[in-house]
Known about the structure:
The chain is α/β, with parallel strands linked by helices and 302 residues long. The protein folds into two domains: 24-122, Elongation Factor Tu (Ef-tu), domain 3 (Beta Barrel); 126-297, 3-Layer(aba) Sandwich (Rossmann fold). It contains seven helices and twelve strands. A six-stranded parallel β-sheet has the order 10-9-8-7-11-12, sandwiched between helices. It catalyses: NADPH + 2 O2 = 2 superoxide + NADP(+) + H(+).
Amino acid sequence: TWKWVVGPMFLYLCERLVRFWRSQQKVVITKVVIHPFKTIELQMMKKGFKMEVGQYIFVKCPAVSKLEWHPFTLTSAPEEDYFSIHVRIVGDWTEGLFNACGCDKQEFQEAWKMPKIAVDGPFGTASEDVFSYEIVMLVGAGIGVTPFASVLKSVWYKYCHDATNLKLKKIYFYWLCRDTHAFEWFADLLQSLEAQMQERNNAEFLSYNIYLTGWDESQATHFAVHHEEEKDVITGLKQKTLYGRPNWENEFKTIAGQHPGSRIGVFLCGPEGLADTLNKQSISNSEADPRGVHFIFNKENF
């Protein structure tokens, strides 16, 4: 028995030593951005840090807790000279980080006053394979949109420089949110990407649908009154916000009809229930013929 135990234990210890060494490397917080509804963005730099789209890191702030590590999806793109995370203030640890970064103070905070941060990672996820497909469906539920922020930023940078080698030709993006608060920090990115695609006469590249799932009568009435305006009153985007939940069967059938004979990557960051639904739709809408349309499902659950 000891022969079978010693090998895995040795590998585990080696892995822990590597992670400990990486966590001791110096991390510099270069910028803290306060977004509406107590969401903060930490922009950081670390020597030798390399990332891919959709990856995540573990973060520790000794000023808040000397032992706690928390996972956060990277919201920056590999093309940027920093890496960033978005933290929504929803508990004791995130509240402590919010205060440690001086976000509760009105005056400007000097860089040397920023707390020490330890970072372990990055670690890979299914979202890294986005650029392996010509057609993709990106589905984010609530804060599950964060890995796709990295993807869309990377697409924006590629189009700003040279998109001739980009295999990805079409993105169908779905974002499901319970309330309007979650739109605030992400709408700017979509607006930039929307404008970039229009300038390059490629407005069809990104098709996005934003669903507000936790709505009431007053919101529905407001929506009906302003529906004819050029831009959405909630997000400022040309695509109008939709109410309720998507009819996934119709969405899959529509996309399959528009791209016959294609391999379509379906990427989800959301709850297990939604993953089951999308997995079943991916299977039922894929054709038995190898030359037909096929949906390849990839997921990250939280």
